[in-house]
């Protein structure tokens, strides 16, 4: 075993996680902050994914041994999986919509009928009780069975695609929890959406399909073994996420664009979803789906005849964008504060979590039922295209408490499912239907209910709440502007929704396409683009987008695609992990076991040293997971020689299981005799690791790391007479918190920061207070028990609860 | 000057381009095929672009010295430029449409009036003569004034964005030639499109705006100096290309997606274009634009009321996709053969070029005028929504030679502008309007006219011809299937257009969005997606997409984003450029001048050697362009020391001009005394070049090179006691032709090739026969006269003519 120590200074602020008195390590400089996720000042052992192609001799040989048929089989299975993803996702999406429409619909029909009979208190009681029951079920199920199912799921999927390995997010348990939870939570009239959970559900489905059955019961399909690696799994998740968006919004292209990477197979999956949904709608059109009708699959057709806008409609639209941007940033800001408070409450135990969810439910029910009483009844318009008031079904004119021939405009919005509310808001030629005061009340109610509903312990999406809020805001602005514009209020609602989406989520192009697909009005496109650009620009000047904020709160080490200016002032040597732990090409078993037990590193350089080579030569990089496979198989030699061992392994041995099920070094038992034997690491080392010279600027190294999607990057010296590898870079070495920790002065050099207009009350210092992960101190006290797997689970669930 | 020789074998098949007897070089292994573009077996000195951020001390210091205001100014200017691009592109696009509609419209009105008076021969003569005159003008102008304006321009823009520096493509002369040429060529009834040229025009506008005036007359705007580098220019070209697509198709989002990279500023530019076009349409609506009407801006509204499709419509759509894919591949195949014949004709001189263009024009005119006589006249339908026959304007029912109350269906398609033909084909509720035989004649005519019209010496796009051909094919299939489907013939035309676009161009997602934006029918989306996927898959099995084919014919070293399997079997050391020419950190002027004069390399490693360092250390990489700036400024020292020279340079000195205007080493005159002095290269060397270890597999190196968009990548040794850099990789080292040249056995190892179903008559061997670039032999005979600039121009124009 080689030990390399190449630091100059002796800084050791905290004890290292590896035991420093361990045989021949000579740790001169310790960088305790790397290779274990560092968020704030906390060590959070979230791992990274291996997207890199491991080019080792074994895999090359294995690939070479495959016939054309096996290669064809692999390509064929890729497409079949995408077809299956499309089919299953559309089925599940349809099932969820069917569930929500029927449960919520029945509730509203029963309540409305009681209202018709003027049994107002009974109606209120039934409404509140059913909401309460549904929320209780959703939160109990989430808290007790599948804590990872709470929340939107989009931050998790986004982090996964970024290369962060989060355990339990794609398990069957989470999937079931999310499906049942979202049906009951959305049916309970909470202001939450089903789009985010739908994306999470679809990604889970994709992963599980790729898994090809349960590993526990040995029911796996051999053809799918080749998909058991992070790279293929990422592609599946991409297809799944795209299919999820397609199913949630019937927006196939928007789904494909969501990740930025254009994957043909994702395109295929979304096309399958779109066609299947069309089939389901045909089926439901004949009335076989209960209260489902055809509207359950969100689609707001705002096509109006001869819609024309002029250049003088642009200024009000710009104004809408500016205010929308400010509102979006404010939304994110308040949401963050509320989530921090919820986090404190959730930390006290499951009872508190359930209590919080139920409180929000009762509060919501009271508001929904109570507020419409504030609005005055209005006479039905003569010659309306639909019945007024609408009874027993969705529509623009809710009767609520009004006399016959009258309707309650606020109830039409608030005492309704979110989908119907959006449909009412987006509807055209209804400019005189809603009062300004009703619209304002609705907007304020939605704004705060969205924020207070998101963080509860139940699946909950943000997309639909933001659309409802934005649409009511836009429609209100349209009412204020009145007749001086050629745009009707329905179009203002669409633009308002776009402005709040741009201000809160900032994912401009995909949101643009999604909104277009949702509203089926392409002529609106340029205005939507302008609104999104303006609101995104304004909001970006104020704070981070909502998903980044959520990921930061959850402590995911998300790697941005751009380098910050201060990174140009640093070289990779300034931040790289030290000391570097290396293996020799032919290594003693004892050394491997010791190193794996005493470090948490996941990649180790393999260096050939004399006498096996003339001088120390970098051979490659070996993964912890592969080392453990080698140790388990016990293909050891008594003497330090390299022999052909290919026939003793199959590629299945190296397959990586999903969802954090990893073999641990602690589970491997070796005799003393075996410990003294040798392993030839050459055939299993990635002989083409990506490397950077130590003088490379950190900014450029980050671009390399992020663009190629690496987990480990080796740092090599630029002078001779030194070891062939002098450090290793991982995701965590690029985290701003890590760099600021090493060089506190950088954090203060505002010169190199992006110019961001910061209001004093919007400070971001709050981030570093609540630790989502275990503290360094805690981890040190129990270095044996907190193995990576369990440690992550605990810390992760801590937040989710 | 250091000399590094690190090959083992002595292969020197051809004489090297650098003189081997030059002082202390010791060239042991010569790789003559790199650093100069290698296409087929020809040396083609097309250069690459520098997208990499040059992180040298000078630029860092320069950036540091800028105040916040200058940084803000830079960001502000970026957005202002995008606004300007949007405004100018929409103006130019409008002008082109206005020109085409009025010129072509006048021609058709005059001819139709003569037809009404039954002066058929006069009409034919006027029609043919005006077409001939317009084509003559377009081809003369292109051949004599701006040869780079010929063709579509999309391959050039695509190659530019890929990092290939093609001279003259973005000059004012090319811009004017393209604008005037496309107006006259499209007006002359040739079956060519204006979308491709529009993209080229818009990219030129973007580059010229970034240039900020003419350098020749010293009319440059200082604020724009920071944009004079390849990186910012690429972003401008991206915005320009997106704006061009938006202007051509009124498809803003499709434009943004075109390149794959999502750039907010491109989004902004396209939004500006969309809004401006809306303004122009408002203006024209009042009849101020002559024959322009509002239809000139292509937009085919195929929204039909209550459009519904069912699952059983999917099989015919799949069939459409399969046949479309085969047709698309056949289109590409025939186009390639025709272009090769045209190339031979064009090589004989300008007269032949003009003659060819005029022949195609006369042939086209005869077909357009003659074919409708084959079709029988049909009685006008009773109760049609528009006048029948339509006289003096565009419409579905052309009278042509028919009696009153009758129309000629083939004339409606063929004796019309392409835009009107597409509108007729896409129109719904006109299923009985066209005869099957007319449609078949039209399809066959379009298919071959598209192919024969593309290669003439005039600006010509492929997009609209492919849409027309595909739409007629789709409509014909729709007619054959008849009433067993719920889709009308207009929708079949849209799907047919999609299938041929997918089969020929294969750019699926952007085409999908463009078609949607063109047809304003989102419900059709899933079917369009399926058709595109099927046709792309089928066609990919047969041959390469049309743009790749064009780029290959033109000899552009386009770098694919994926690695071929055989690349995993090679290491970078196997293909890297050798011998490596290096500079010392402080280098003698004479050595620099000699090396620049005797090599064509554009990047040189800078190595610190004793006594300036303890051992040879890689400092960085310096560009030829920067060396020439240093030599021109003559900041030399009498002794080999490094002194601070920052104040003698400004960043403007290092600005890179557009369109191949580069200072040449031959133009710099130095005295003997100056030749003996020294330059300190350290402050001007990129201290963070991207590097790979020599054992890195070529596949992974390619991914790194392509993903980050590099021009030079240094190869470093993996053993000590060797020079710190042992090779350099450029774009040309990754070209399959180069690798096959070095390792001919690879070309035969079909095992590692993608399984491609190849028909014997579709062989690709034709590629390597006609040299688009000068031969190695030629180049060797005149090493002094063929400087990079002129050499490229010649070879490039050779093809274009």
TrEMBL record, chains A, B:
Q: What is the protein's major site of localization?
A: membrane
Biased composition range(s): Polar residues: 784-801
Query: What UniProt keywords are attached to this protein's entry?
Result: CBS domain, Chloride, Chloride channel, Ion channel, Ion transport, Membrane, Repeat, Transmembrane, Transmembrane helix, Transport, Voltage-gated channel
What membrane topology does the UniProt entry give?
Answer: Multi-pass membrane protein
Where it sits in the cell: the answer is:
Membrane
Task: Give the GO cellular component terms, alphabetically.
Answer: chloride channel complex; plant-type vacuole membrane
The lineage's top-level taxon is: Eukaryota
| Membrane-spanning parts | 74-100, 120-145, 236-256, 262-280, 292-311, 317-335, 355-375, 440-469, 522-542
PROSITE patterns linked: CBS
Give the Gene Ontology MF terms in alphabetical order. Answer: voltage-gated chloride channel activity
Q: Where is this region: Disordered?
A: 774-801
Calcium among the record's keywords?
no
- CDD domains assigned: CBS_pair_voltage-gated_CLC_euk_bac
Q: Where is the CBS domain?
A: 684-745
- Of which family is this protein a member? Belongs to the chloride channel (TC 2.A.49) family.
Name it.
Chloride channel protein
Q: Species name for this entry?
A: Carnegiea gigantea
